[in-house]
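Final report, closing paragraph on structural work. Over the funding period we assembled a curated collection of sequence-structure pairs, and we close with a single example.
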Amino acid sequence: MAKVLISDKMSPEAEQVFRSRGVEVDYLPGLTPDELKKKLPDYDGIAIRSATKLTQDLIQAATRLKVIGRAGIGVDNVDIPAASKQGVIVMNAPFGNSVTTAEQTMALMLGAARHIPAATASTRLGKWEKNGFMGRELAGKTLGIIGTGNIGSLVIDRCKGMKMAILAYDPFISKAKALDLGIELVENLDDFWPRVDVLTVHAPLTPKTRHIINGDAFAKMKKGVIVINCARGGIVDETALYEALKSGKVFAAGLDVFEKEPAKENPLFGLDNVVLTPHLGASTSEAQIKVAVQIAEQISDYLLKGTVQNALNIPAVSENELPALRPFLNLADKLGTTLGQLTETGVQSIEVTYEGEVAALNHKPITNTLLNSLLTPMLEIGVNLVNAPLIAKERGIVVSEVIRSQSKKGFTSLISVSLITEKRKRCVSGTLSYDQRPRVVSMNEIPIEATPEGNLLFVANQDSPGLIGRVGTILGEAGINIANFHLGRTHQGGSAIAFINIDQDVPKGIMEQLLQVPNVLEVKLVRY
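Its predicted structure, as stored:
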């Protein structure tokens, strides 16, 4: 009989699900790491929340463990690479908290607009300052929303019910999907900031979104904007927000997340026009029941039937298929990561072509892996190997596959990805080297030989004498070491590209210098 450990406090409904399905379960929250290490070898699965920290040491000790289930979204407390190496599937429950987080957003929005916390404190003191808390109506105002995924869509629906106009910025949503949502989509943040009355963000924290709401953004907004963040701390520059609240540029703000958590000290604490809560987005009894039931169902389905749902580290493949698929899954991950970090506008369609020997394999997990890696850079944390196709469909992205038994370009196996956005088409092709390592062999139909690993600088240009030297000089003067320099071109004087493996990151100022080099058309940094 399959046996599962629940090592964190969790709604009793989780135990009921396991037992009703014939899975033996022990509820032992509060174990120390040493106690957990001794217990883990007895279990096939473990259900956790945020208190249990599953380190590499603990996972390696869990010799019987097959699946880790996190009742919630974040899995920062799980060493996923260690779990993958051990052959342990890591699952989460990404949608159980969606409604409650959307409702927390609305609560902060209304609380900030009407000064509810400050007015409550004043009234408790018997002051009756009726004229001291002049608020703002939300009806008829423009909501600016960054991120229109699962939670963002729920917020949009609720704000439309409040008769607000919706302006959205989301590089990975198509115009057709925006039309379905009944919102106006803008492509440029410079056009977004000045039109917003209420600003809310529902995006992951990535290098691209860190401090996306900063001093420059506040300077472009109209006076009296309301700012809400229930997504991730660090998306809003708290120092810039403090100054904007003090100056009156921002009328009020509501924050459920902070750059440093637990937030026990923060300059924002001293302001009356900000509503602050301690990361309560998922803190409702209904949400806790939902995520507990969801993760119990997922773990038991996997242990009893082999069904994989919301897995973060492996697609649904059989034990016999995995050895042949593994190198192509790695290749698909690299190709998706490449396109995902090069693409900045709404994606309309993705076509994946399998040629040669790979065409005879189970290509669904390969496509899922590619979609996951492609969509992850700009989307919510809930994207994973299983739900990536559904998320693409929800966003109006058409995904298709082409199967060819022989490669037109003579490769034993070739995977090509063609991505069409509202502005351009990008294509990348890859194969495996003799030692099964991924290789990029063409980009935008230009032949090239490149290794997708570490930091890879992508440069698109018109072929011209001296350009390579200028690029190398700029990088060298900045102390950035070049490991490999891969070149390709259509013909002399035609379109050309370079993939440059470098040992360091590239500061923004250096990227701008590279863009100023004559005949350079595009410069992007891809991190693997």
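The domain at 451-528 is CATH 3.30.70.260 (Alpha-Beta Plaits). The chain has four domains: 3-96+287-311, 98-276, 321-444, 451-528. We thank the funder for supporting this effort.
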